[in-house]
Write a structure and sequence with these properties.
It contains 5 helices and 5 strands; from the N terminus they run αααβαββαββ. The protein is an alpha+beta fold and about 180 residues long.
C-alpha cells in the first residue's frame, strides 16, 4: 500500500487514466451516444475541479494521498469532495496524512475484498479547522476492530466523533482544530 511514488509512476497513472477517459468518450461517439459523451465530459470536469480544490488547500501530503488512493491496491474506491476552500495553513499535514493512511490500511484489512466497497470523504476547511465527513458503504467483516481503531486516542488534536457503524456502513467525522496545531 505505501508505494514510494516517483514522478514517472505518477505520470504513468495519470496518462493511463486520461487514456481510459478518452477511449470511453471515443467508444460512446462510435456508438452514436452523444448524451452519454456529454455525461462523461461533465463527470471529468467535476472530478478535475475537485482535484484542483483539493490541491489548493495547502495540505500537499494529504492531497497527494487522496489523489493516488485509487491507484493503490485498496479494496475500496475513494471519492472526495471539497466543500469549503479555506486554506489549511495551520493544519499539520503530516499528522493528517499519517492518520488517513492508517485509516485506509485499517479499513482495507476489515472489508470484504472484491465487494462493492465505496469510501466517500467530504472535506470542509474552515477558519477554525478542518473537518472530514467520512462515509463508507460496502461489506465490513470486522466492525469491532474498526470501532476500536476509531475510538483510540489520536495524535495532536485530531478527534474522531459521531461514529455510526454496521456491517454495511461506517460513518464518522474527523476534526482537526487549527488553533491548537500552530507550528
Amino acid at each position: 500500500m505505501n508505494k514510494d511514488w516517483n514522478t514517472i509512476d505518477f505520470l504513468r497513472h495519470v496518462r493511463h487514466d486520461w487514456l481510459n477517459k478518452i477511449q470511453l468518450i471515443k467508444g460512446n461517439l462510435d456508438l452514436n451516444k452523444p448524451d452519454r459523451v456529454k455525461e462523461i465530459i461533465n463527470e471529468i470536469i467535476t472530478e478535475t475541479k475537485q482535484e484542483a480544490k483539493l490541491s489548493n488547500l495547502d495540505i500537499p501530503q494529504f492531497a497527494t494521498k487522496l489523489l493516488i488512493a485509487n491507484w493503490e491496491n485498496y479494496h475500496f474506491r475513494l471519492e472526495y469532495e471539497v466543500l469549503a476552500e479555506e486554506k489549511c495553513q495551520l493544519t499539520e499535514d503530516d499528522i493528517l496524512t499519517s492518520w488517513i493512511t492508517l485509516f485506509f490500511q485499517t479499513l482495507n484489512q476489515h472489508i470484504k475484498p472484491f465487494a462493492d466497497n465505496h469510501l466517500f470523504i467530504s472535506i470542509h476547511s474552515m477558519e477554525e479547522g478542518l473537518r472530514l465527513y467520512v462515509d463508507f458503504n460496502g461489506v465490513l467483516v470486522n466492525t469491532e476492530s474498526m470501532s476500536s481503531f476509531l475510538q483510540q486516542p489520536f495524535p495532536k488534536h485530531l478527534v474522531v466523533e459521531n461514529t455510526e457503524i454496521s456491517d454495511k456502513e461506517l460513518v464518522f467525522e474527523v476534526w482537526m482544530n487549527r488553533e491548537k496545531t500552530g507550528k
